[in-house]
Design a protein that fits this description.
The protein is an alpha/beta fold. The protein is built from 21 helices and seven strands. Helix 2 links the parallel strand 4 and strand 5. This is Deoxyribodipyrimidine photo-lyase.
Length: about 500
Amino acid sequence: MTITLPSSTPVQSGRIRVLKKGSDHLVGPVVYWMFRDQRLKDNWALIHAVDQANKANVPIAIAFNLFDQFLGAKARQLGFMLRGLEKLCGEIEETLRVPFFLFQGEAVETIPKFLRESGASLLVTDFSPLRQVRSWKEDICKRVSDSVSIHEVDAHNIVPLWVASDKLEYGARTIRGKITKLLPQYLIDFPTLGPPNENWVGSTPSVDWENLISDVVSKGAEVPEIGWCEPGEHAALEALKGTTNGFLTTRLKNYSSDRNNPLKPKGLSGLSPYLHFGQIAAQRCAFEANKVRKVFPQAVDSFLEELIVRRELADNFCFYQPKYDSIEGAWEWARKTLMDHTSDKREHIYTKEQLEKAQTADPLWNASQLEMVHYGKMHGFMRMYWAKKILEWTAGPIEALAISIYLNDKYELDGRDPSGYVGCMWSICGIHDQGWKERPVFGKIRYMNYAGCKRKFDVDGYIAYVKRLVGDIKKRKGEDLLNEKAKELRGQ
């Protein structure tokens, strides 16, 4: 059982949970195991780790564990993450004078080993609701010395998950009021983070970023990196409020009207990759958005609903429903209606390979799949249509859900995220939705079709847009390959 930390700290006590209580007095260093929140600024977990180290007059180190293609991540996701971490490592060592250790392998082995070797007394971790991460933490609690304490800090949600609700919420309407009531307490600015009082004693690690990134990218080359989104904390802040193309500074005005139009991709915030990898804090995004709320109240309210209520609802689902990626995690009414209609005749049945290659009779669906495969991001409205069609075109809901999660996690830059799991579960299993009029295949799950999309936006325009987009990406890739070949020939 976890308990809340009572002691005085710049981090609100509700944001911290004690996963393991060790010695009351820290005698060894503090280690921050960074995982989900990969940033220097606006990071409650790092703020807590530095504060605890300063109170005990001990040094602090940051540890990051690189898994081998975590949950199917490829070059696209791992390249983006590692390029962001390379920048972060330099900045942490320069501004905080804190060493950054990067390990490869299983965290349940590398983190306890590092704690033993460094003589650490406290491990601080950031929070993730995903069951794999929670399982690692449970294992680590068992593997470390009795004298080591382990604190978990929710640095990802604005209202800490366990404070917002202590149960699985039915939908946005049941959690919205709980979060809104707590926002005045938790939606605050961050304290300034300075270097710790004590310097790290011992060798400072050196990471060969160039070779590491090259190796990881080559292993996951079947899903290549994208060029439209620059990784890192500075790029994230630029995407939020930069003068050239910042969301709050140049594109916010029409957010509430444009965000559901797939032909207006710039109507979206473009922040999801940065939020997923923790290169920017949702709390910073909300804090800055509130500053311009008087100018664009409707747009800011729509943005905060997505950023806070919907994102934190997704974390709530994945935390309190361990089967968050399975039909068993659906509500009983949804499971029943889906199973009742499993044997219904389908107009088309496609294999996973046909879907992955966008080989269906629906040009709109094919366009959305190609946008995801080549661009690394599918428009949010299209994601709903895309997943519902997979339900319609596969042998049953179990296969449909597995394929949608597989494709989402493989190609989306922000795959393997609670919002991604909930998006697939909403579309196929009715999570956070209600029962609708019963129909073949879907049962009472909300239905979407081509004709409905045509009424909402210019379908032919979207298909043409994706065709141009994919053509441009393939052309650039071809030019890059030619340039690489020319370099090789010059070097011979």
